[in-house]
Design a protein that fits this description.
The complex is a heterodimer. Chain A is mainly beta. Chain A has two domains: about 80 residues, Immunoglobulin-like; about 600 residues, Maltoporin, Chain A (Beta Barrel). Helices cover about 5% and strands about 55% of the residues of chain A. In chain A, the strands form seven sheets. Chain A has a 22-stranded antiparallel beta barrel. The longest helix of chain A has 18 residues. Chain B is mostly helical. Chain B folds into two domains: about 80 residues, no CATH class; about 110 residues, Tetratricopeptide repeat domain (Serine Threonine Protein Phosphatase 5, Tetratricopeptide repeat, Alpha Horseshoe), CATH 1.25.40.10. Helix content of chain B is about 80%, strand content about 0%. Chain B contains ten helices and no strands. The chains are: A mainly beta, B mainly alpha. Chains A and B meet through α1, β2, β3 and β36 of A and α1, α3, α5 and α7 of B.
Chain lengths: ~725, ~210
């Protein structure tokens, strides 16, 4: 009995030990001292634990004893481990979590950058936003013109960023140059982007201060990422008032192939809606697209993307050498673009991205009195390697080689005079960049890029530095500084190669506040142009007058607000830009504000989704101050201001099934109010008998543009 | 007497250890039960936390990963912020992948993936077209793998129910799917094991509400 009692006593004691509980409690906070709600706190290898409450506190009991490890995990933070001695005594532990690099709402360098990832993330602008922006008419560049830092130059259609000329903005597809991203056009008729916005899942639009990975653009880089895998095997049909298209996609688990053909002809539309000028050949385009994807066994991804197109149109345009007369203009363009890229992980933790891009462009311009045939071939090869050296340190190195071949034949119809110019240029660039985040609220990026041109026999190193500091949970400031170089344009190089790179230095300061699908950005910048090419207007063909003595500046303020929260189903953004810019370049006799730099630009885009009728309604409005132009009847240069620009456009997209298939019906009207926007004036070369240069306004071809479309997916 | 005493001690001892160390399966089932009764987002969060702990402690079994993904999808339904919703579903997507790699039930995991796609639509209605067709594809797969998967039929019903009438959706067209789901539930009922079994109550509710709308 005595033994039994002692056994009982021992067993109860032992059992009591098993029943014993250690209470572990405490608070989990982030580096800024804010409590983290919903963090998982537990003893490693057991189920014992708790999730933190609204004040970041946790408390749980555990029956484990001895040396244990307390784990804390929370989305967007590095897992935290702490050794504990569990001994029945209550334990109080306070934990500070370290943010994982690149977490949601983490400090990210935003100076000069508008980023739009795939549609999962609601950052600034996503591909669908582009398609449904009414003033964009389905054009990528048109949609970017509703962002601050850009100017609407209605007679051109290209991107003009912060007082920079159109040629200063470059487009990159999967990291590689797209040499001719705009459709071919002639003076005073706007071009459009060649690429459909549906091809891309990511858009990064930099209005300055961008990474050392990109070069040869003084003002801006538009970096487009093509879709990874199509969702399924399907056929897409499109019927527009201006053309038709069909695309067939096949996919299995690791491969996909799409092929499509599109035909556009504005002839029938122009018969219904009269245009300002007589079109002897309405704009028409036939294009083919092939795109393939393959995922390799090692996880790498191969992408091939290729387009070919032929477009032509002709119209009767006032002949600036002969008042009252019309000249017959005609343009015929053939264009091909192929982009092959591979990205994947290599041994040693290196992530490789490499690729080849070819642009072939053959453009024939017939201006009745003379003809210009231009052939441009551009090949770019690029490789970059990225490695995460430490959890807060990343390095990227890369090399790029570009061959640019240009040939132009100029021929005068009557005199028979002709001139041929041709050249080729090998551009080489090497770059290295580090991304370092020494503190969870402070990130830096420092890059160096060297560029060489064989034609100019010239090289320059460029420095790119940027940093961001998180001020509060939702607000942060960033800054960027960079040197940007660009080989002079072909139209200059055809007369001489005795030139240097043109240069721009950017200085940007940015504040961004983002919370719950509302975002405010305020950015101010200073852009300093050096080494711009100048020549003599009267003897533009004379190489002796060509040199790099031009210069200029841009200063401005950009404000952006986007709100997807305040009103359910309403998404809108407002942009305002103030711009002061002057330059002396090309044939400018003095320093002046260029024609593409309006002082104030204000734009608003709003979209409202009505769930009951599955329809989205869109409205966009733009208001900009008049742009300068040169009036030869007045003293001085760039001495007149065109009237202000305004445009209100609407659209609606209705989703439904037709014959059991998914369909989108789309309708839009641009410039709804029909304002006759005057972009500027063009003057005849010679004065009339009264000594006055007669001019005519440069306006759009028609006041409004109507579009009706049906997209079917089978 | 001595034997009785030792025996009773042993019984007591055995009973109490068992009481404090219930099997993993029981803990999972209990947590999923709590998840279904959660009154607010904090309670759901607590269940997700618990399942995270179970999944970490039982890294070789597919079921904890399955339920973890399921609980995250439930959490995403309660979360208001679209960006966070997406981030939670990104995690759930990884759990499903892991569960698949651990040899999980392919039919059930495809159905769960479809549920996840439906959750994506909640971030932005304009995604409906894309994700409802992706969900339909996944459910198609799930039903092919196991025609008696009640959850796949239920989710197919949900897909149709939430698709606007003009897209060929609506309550009337959804009802047969819900009925089919209930049929499958009834055939399989009685076995309350760790295998996925959720969905019968909501299926009944949906059948009732489809009836109301007609």
């Amino acid at each position: 009995m005595k033994i039994s009692v002692s056994i009982l006593f021992f067993a109860l004691l032992f059992n009591g030990a098993i029943h014993s509980q250690t209470i572990v409690s405490g608070i989990v906070k982030d580096a800024l001292g804010e409590p983290l709600v919903g963090a998982n706190v537990f003893i490693k290898g057991s189920f014992d634990g708790d999730a933190t409450g609204p004040d970041g506190s946790f408390s749980f009991e555990t029956s484990l004893l001895g040396q244990s490890i307390l784990m804390v995990s929370f989305l967007g933070y590095e897992a935290h481990e702490k050794s504990l001695e569990l001994n029945n005594q209550p334990l109080s532990v306070n934990i500070v979590m370290k943010a994982a690099v690149g977490r949601l709402g983490d400090v990210v360098i935003t100076a000069g950058l508008f980023e739009a990832g795939d549609e999962k993330k609601s950052i600034t602008l996503n591909p669908l936003d582009i398609v449904t922006t009414p003033s964009a008419e389905g054009d990528i560049y048109g949609a970017l013109m509703a962002l601050p830092g850009t100017s609407v130059v209605g007679e051109d259609g290209r991107l003009f960023v912060r007082g920079g000329d159109g040629y200063e903005s470059k487009t990159f597809v999967d990291g590689l140059l797209s040499k001719k991203p705009y459709s071919s056009s002639m003076p005073d008729l706007p071009s459009r982007g060649r690429f459909s916005p549906f091809l891309f899942s990511g858009t990064t639009f930099s209005t300055g201060g961008y990474s050392a990975e990109y070069g040869q653009a003084l003002s801006s880089a538009l970096i487009l990422t093509t879709n990874s895998f199509p969702e399924r095997t399907q056929t897409e049909l499109s019927f527009l008032t201006v053309g038709q298209g069909v695309t067939q996609t096949f996919r299995d688990d690791n491969r996909s192939l799409s092929a499509g053909v599109n035909y556009f002809n504005l002839g029938p539309y122009y018969n219904l809606v009269p245009q300002k000028h007589g079109f002897n050949t309405a704009p028409q385009e036939l294009s083919f697209l092939i795109s393939g994807r393959e995922r390799w066994n090692n996880g790498g991804m191969l992408k091939v993307f290729s387009t070919f197109s032929r477009s032509r149109f002709g119209l009767d345009f006032p002949n600036t050498s002969n008042p009252g007369a019309l000249a017959k203009l005609f343009i015929d363009n053939r264009n091909g673009y192929t982009n092959v890229s591979y990205s994947g992980e290599m041994k040693g933790g290196w992530f490789i991205k490499s690729g080849l891009a070819f642009t072939i462009d053959d453009n024939r311009l017939d201006l009745q009195y003379f003809k210009v045939d231009e052939a441009n071939q551009n090949v770019q090869a690029k490789i970059t390697a990225k490695k995460q050296l430490r959890s807060n340190l990343k390095m990227i190195i890369g090399a790029e080689e570009t061959l640019n071949r240009f040939k132009q034949i100029y021929k005068e119809t009557e005199s028979g005079f002709s001139n041929q110019s041709k050249f080729h240029d090998f551009g080489t660039a090497l770059f290295v960049e580090t991304e370092w985040q020494p503190l969870s609220r402070f990130a830096t990026r420092i890059g160096l890029r060297g560029e060489h041109s064989s034609l100019l026999d010239y090289w320059k190193p460029a420095l790119r530095v940027s940093a961001a500091y998180q001020l509060t949970t939702y607000g942060q400031i960033s800054m960027a500084y960079g040197n940007f170089f660009q080989t002079p344009e072909e139209e200059l190089l055809r007369f001489t190669s005795n030139l240097e790179f043109e240069q721009a230095n950017h200085c940007i300061l940015n504040y961004q506040w983002e919370r719950n699908s509302r975002i405010i950005r305020v950015e101010t910048y200073l852009k300093d142009y050096k080494n711009l090419v100048v020549f003599n207007a009267d003897e533009f063909w004379n190489p002796e007058y060509y040199n790099n003595s031009g210069s200029g500046f841009s200063r401005g303020l950009d404000i952006f607000y986007r709100d997807q929260k305040t009103i359910r189903y309403l998404d809108f953004w407002v942009s305002y830009s103030y711009l002061a810019s002057e330059r002396k370049y090309r044939d400018y006799p003095v320093k002046a504000t260029p024609t593409f730099a309006p002082k104030h630009s204000l734009s608003m885009v709003g979209k409202y989704w009505v769930n009951r009728i599955t329809t989205q309604f869109g409205l966009s409005a733009t208001l900009a101050s008049g742009r300068p132009y040169d009036n030869p009847n007045k003293p001085g240069f760039m001495n007149a201001l065109a009237p202000h620009y305004s445009n209100v456009s609407i659209n609606c997209s209705h989703l439904r099934t037709i014959w059991g298939k998914q369909a989108i019906i789309y309708a839009s009207v641009s410039n709804l109010l029909g304002r006759d926007n005057i972009y500027g004036y063009r003057f005849f070369n010679q004065p009339d008998q009264n000594g006055v240069y007669q001019g005519f306004p440069v306006t759009a071809e028609s006041k409004r543009f109507y579009l009706l479309a049906l997209f079917l997916t089978i | 007497m001595k034997t009785v005493l030792i025996f009773s001690i042993l019984v007591y001892f055995w009973g109490s250890t068992n009481a404090i160390n219930p099997s993993t399966d029981e803990v999972i089932l209990e947590t999923v039960g709590k998840l279904h009764q959660a009154a607010n987002i904090e309670e759901v969060q607590a269940c997700v936390g618990k399942l995270e702990r179970i999944a970490a402690a039982e890294p070789k079994r597919w079921e904890p990963q399955y339920y973890l993904a399921y609980s995250r999808i439930m959490l995403s339904f309660r979360e208001q912020n679209g960006e966070k919703k997406d981030a939670i579903l990104d995690q759930a997507e990884l759990d499903i992948k892991k569960s698949m790699e651990l040899g999980g039930d392919k039919s059930e995991l495809n159905a769960l993936q479809a549920y996840l796609y439906q959750g994506r639509i909640q971030v932005n209605a304009i995604r409906g077209m894309k994700y409802s067709s992706m969900a339909a594809d996944a459910l198609d797969k799930a039903i092919k793998l196991n025609p008696a998967n009640a959850r796949a039929h239920f989710l197919l019903g949900m897909n149709v129910y939430h698709t606007p009438k003009m897209f060929g959706g609506g309550a009337k067209k959804a009802l047969p799917h819900f009925k089919k789901a209930l049929e499958c539930f009834e055939k399989s009922s009685g076995v309350k094991s760790i295998a996925p079994h959720w969905g019968v109550e909501i299926t009944r509710q949906m059948i009732a509400s489809c009836g109301d709308e007609e």
